[in-house]
Structure formats: structure tokens, C-alpha cells
Amino acid sequence: MMTIRQRLLLLLLPALVILMLLGGLADYWIAVATTRNAYDQALASVAAAAAASLHSDDGRLQISAAQRAAITRRPDSEGSTLYSITGPGGELIAGTAQLPAAAPSPGARGDSVSFRNADYQGLKLRVASLRSRTDAGAVTVTVAETLQRRASTQRVMLVGKLLVDFAELDVTLLLVWIGVYFGLRPLSRLRERVEEHSASTLQRFNEADAPGELRPLILALNHLLELRHDAALSQRRFVADAAHQMRTPVTGLLAQLELLLRAPGALAVQSELTTINRGVQQLAHTANQLLALARAEPVSAVGESFKPVALQPLVEHMVERNIDRAVSAGLDLGADAQAAQVTGDAWLLEDLLGNLVDNALKYTPAGGHVTVRSGVEQGHPFLEVEDDGPGIEESARLRVRERFYRLPGSPGTGCGLGLAIVDEIARAHGASLSIGAAQGRGTRMRIRFPRAT
Length: 453
Known about the structure:
Strand order of the largest sheet: 4-3-7-6-5
Strand content: 15-25%
Distance between the termini: 35 Å
Number of domains: 3
Helix content: 40-55%
CATH architecture of the largest domain: 2-Layer Sandwich
């Protein structure tokens, strides 16, 4: 995706290109007009000097050889100068015969110079004609030059101007980029602050130190964060309240079922009561899972109760609590706990590890092994539960984190919340859940916490 800077530059680029084209046209017009006026003025000066140098000799107008040499020059690669001086009757006094003259413009006064473009013997000429009055009568002095010098000068001027314009365009783009870069720095800082916010840190942004243009955006973000916080808190309270309301009658129902199962008169319906008991136990488990999920929901208050938590005692306690269950299921449950410490909520971390151990014990067949580990690897504390059960296909390792999702053919009557709870608690602690395959077969669940500081 394009950044704001790139979009602004792309929006400005067409305008700058159009300005460059208009500037090029203006440069061309200036180069043509400037050279035309300068060279026309030079031709007019030559014509005026020739007219001033005319003198009468025995009633005939003549021009000195020095003045002729001053008018003409040796032809070169850039062109040559032609001239003609005609008398009152149109007779040629000096210069090139049949050189086309420029007709005077309407309303022109005497001694005025007229200009025109003309073709003469295959040459493109710029012609200047001066009509002047002398003692012998009116004469016409015509001076013409080829257009090569003008065109060469125009090219030099135009190329020089275009190079300057291109340099100005480059400098303008650079200044625009610098202005956009520094102008958007506050927005970049705001983006970084937004990215630093996780689902568990929904604190407001401080709008006091923000530029005026960004304050409406920050106020809108703060309003959105408040709505998000209120919605998450409301959902958390609803789930917790519903689960709590379920636990009280379910706990009483379980107690009554236990008493009923021991009653002598219940032998006739022993099978039905056992089925009901399993269902109620499952309901109680679901209520407990919902409570754990509600505690793990990411709202801003979660991180406020974080304290240092030692992982080694947590692992040892979890193994001790489940050892009887493992023995009755024919499993080898062990601990490989190394000292490690994280900052977090002890109750949530106990729920996290309890769900991982519960899954491992539930899915590992009799005779299998379950190992619970803690330690530090490359500076990152971790919790890990490894089993040699059936394992989880790589294609399903993302889906098992979803709420209420269970792998097809899974044993038991779980509700599919265990790994969802683990994932929520891990993210609330800034940790990550990775699901891999154990050596040979089975599953390795690892919670990798942020680097210890």
C-alpha cells in the first residue's frame, strides 16, 4: 500500500509536469521574442548606419567602401548578411539586386524601419527596410540576414532555460518531499503510538501535545477506545455473570447426584444417573472455562494487576494437582522445571497452564507421557507442555485456537474453549502460543513470553 507521502507526491506530480510544460512553452516564446527583438534591433542599427553614411557625389548617392565592409561580412556556417540601397526611382545604388524589401506598416512615419521574413534564392531571410530622406531624394536601405544565427541563439537560450527549469523542478520536488516528510512526522508518531497499543492496553491518547490538525483525529480515536473498552468490559461482565450464575446451581446439582448415586435405591437407574452426572460435570467444566475466558478477555484493566510470577513453582503445583488423574489414566506426568520469572497475573497463568495440561492428559492414550516445562531460552521465559498423543495436523493449528472449535474425532465432550483461553491469556501477557510436533509424535505447546528485562 502507498504511504501518505507517496500519494501526496503522486498528486503533486501531474501539476508539476503541467507547470513544467507551460514553463517550457513560455521559455520558447521568450527565447523567440528576445532573439527576434535583439537581432531586429541590430539589423535596424545597421540600416540606420548605412543610411547615415550615404553622401552625394555629383548628384549621385554613394556609400563608402568602409561602410560596405561594415555592413557585409564574410559568409560563415552561421549565415551571412545581404543589403541593398535603392534610390528614389527604385534604381540600385549599392548592394544585392532584387533583394526583397519590407513594406512599410500602415501609418508608419518617415525614417521608420519595417521588418519581414522573406525567401531569396533558397535562403530564409529576416529583412529590415529603412526609408530615409536625403538631399537627392528618398532612399530605401534594406538589410537582410539568414536565420541560422537566430535559431542557434534561440536553441542555446531555450536549452539553458529548460535546464534551469528542470533544476528548479528537482529542487521543488525535494522541498515538497522534505515539507511532506516533516509535516507528517506527527501523524507517523501517532501511528507508532497506535501500533504500540495492544488489545490489553486501551488507554487514551494524549491530545495536548498533538498539532491542532490531529486533535480531532485523536479525539475520535479516544472515543473509539472508550467504546471498545466499554463493549469489552460489558461482554466480560456478561460472560462472568452468566458463568457464575450457572456454577451455583450446577455445583448443587453435582452434589445431589453424588448422593443419589450412592443411594441403595438408585441401583435400578444407575446407568441413567451416571450419564446425567457426566453431562452435569461437562456443564460445570464449561462454566469454569467461560469464567476463565472472561478473566482473559483483553480490556485495559488486565495489565494493572500484573506482578512478578515465578514459573517453576507454577509448573510443580500444576503437576502435583494432576498427578492422580494421570495415574488413573495410565499416563506418565512429569516436570522439567527451570527457574524463570515473568510479569503477569498468577491466576490467569494458572488457568493457561491448567488448560494445556488438561488437553495433554485428555488426548494422550494410556501408556503415554506428558512433560511440563519452564525455563528461559534466548532471554525469553517460556512454559511448555509436551505429549506423545496423536498430535495436531499443521493445517489445523490455527483453527484449534478458535472458540468452540474441536478437531473432528476428538475424544470426550469438551467445549472447544481450552486453546482459545490459552491464546487470549498469552496475548494479554504479550506472549505467543506456538503449536508444534514433539519428537517422534505428539504435540508441543509452548508459551513464549517477552524478553526478561
